[in-house]
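subagent[fold] <- orchestrator: predict structure for attached chain, return tokens only, no commentary.
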Amino acid sequence: MSPAADRIRFVLVAPSHAGNIGAAARAIKTMGFRRLVVVQPKDPLYREQPEAVALATGAADVLAASESCSGLAEALTGVHTAFAMTGYDRQFGPPLLDLHACAGTAADRLGAADEQVAFVFGTERSGLANEDVERCQVCCAIPADPSFSSLNLAQAVQVAAYECQLALRGTAAIHATQRRFGPDEAPAPVEALERFYAHFEQAMVAVGALDPAEPKRLMQRMRRLFNRARPTQTEIDVLRGVTAAIIESRADRAGRKRGR
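subagent[fold] -> orchestrator:
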């Protein structure tokens, strides 16, 4: 497997059953991956649960090494492209694409620059919450039978890992789409986007474009816009400079600094 496999992480958000975490560890290891991240597990001691260890089988090492995070933002630290695994399009979420295409895109970006990607899975019962989907840049769907599209969490992880393995091995059409980013032009990581969204919201409030009491899902719409645009870190820096000027003029900032 390509060294790029180490830059793909599989993120489970709020899984209810420790056994599913163990089965997911086995699923990714069989495809050559090692990085499993668990967000707010119902059982914080899932690594030691007999069911999880049993279902992990030969992947107990992946289970033991899995990372546990308090929130999705933390789990996506360092990630440039996060794929939200969901069975349906969300009104304000990123565009919904086929898993096969997403795996090819992930492999293409991993080969283009030193990026990191994540495939994010929701809870067993209800999937990903809208706010978690909105933290991702792409919605990704497994094209199952519409009349019975329900997959077990570990099954979904297995299918995603299999498609990623095919893409990284070059057996899928990795270069079917044109690359947008060059080696020095990677998209901004998720944490940079989140800082920008917070800053942008302040600017919108400052100019009266956003009423905090009645936000009317304006920020969700802006997230969707910027997720489509995929800005680079340089572009985010420019946008944050603009938002800083909106919140406080350059003259006011200079005067405040002189007064210190």
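orchestrator: received. Logging for downstream: The chain has a mean pLDDT of 87. The domain at 3-169 is CATH 3.40.1280.10 (Alpha/beta knot).
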